[in-house]
Amino acid sequence: MALIVEDGTGLPNAESYASVAEADAHFSARGSEAWDNVENKEAALRLATDYMLQTYSGRWKGTRKTSTQALDWPRYNVPLEDDPAWLTLLSSSIVPAQVKKATIELALITTAGALVPNLERAQASVSVGEISVTYEGSSSQLPRYPMIDMILSPLLASSGFTRQLVRT
């Protein structure tokens, strides 16, 4: 089945924020050959988009363009990060470049294994012979992708209302 890529209209059946051609161009421009060896690029892009839906839904700035769209983007009322007064908004008929880039980068990560693996009970300490390792009890076992968080940060709402003040 051909990959259905969100085109900015709010497709009800979209499966990905980025196309295989966009991913190919992204990795080619960066000299990455790992993507060339990916057997099912469409599946990797679908999995990456699924991860973004599960991880970032409810955290995006703005509101979804339509109530029937399959994905979180496109959105209304998303301020441009470079506008200190927050008066200029992103077009509501696009998927931002940051969302596409994060999808593409996550797609490559999916080829190394599940983005969110099934977790087993955490062990507080492990000993093998004379070697002993103790784990922090409150640390998360879920993998984190700080690069993805940094790419998307301009589009994510903060936990509290903050606004940059500019002295004129």
What is this structure, in a nutshell?
28% of the residues lie in helices and 7% in strands. The protein is α+β, with helices and mostly antiparallel strands and 168 residues long.
Which geometry do the CA atoms define?
globular
**Total tally of structural domains:** 1
What is the number of beta strands? 4
H-E order: HHEEHEEH
Percent of residues in helices: 25-40%
Strand residues, percent? 5-15%
Low-pLDDT regions: none
The largest beta-sheet arranges its strands as 1-2
What is the CA-based Rg, rounded?
Answer: 19 Å
Query: N-to-C terminal Cα separation, in Å?
Result: 55 Å
Task: Describe, in plain words, how this protein is organized in 3D.
- The chain is of the alpha+beta class and 168 residues long.
- It has one domain (20-155).
- Helices cover 28% and strands 7% of the residues.
- The chain is built from 4 helices and 4 strands.
- It has a two-stranded antiparallel ribbon with strand order 1-2. Strands 3-4 form a two-stranded antiparallel sheet.
- β3 (125-128) and β4 (131-134) form a beta hairpin.
- The protein is globular and about 60 Å long.
- The termini are far apart.
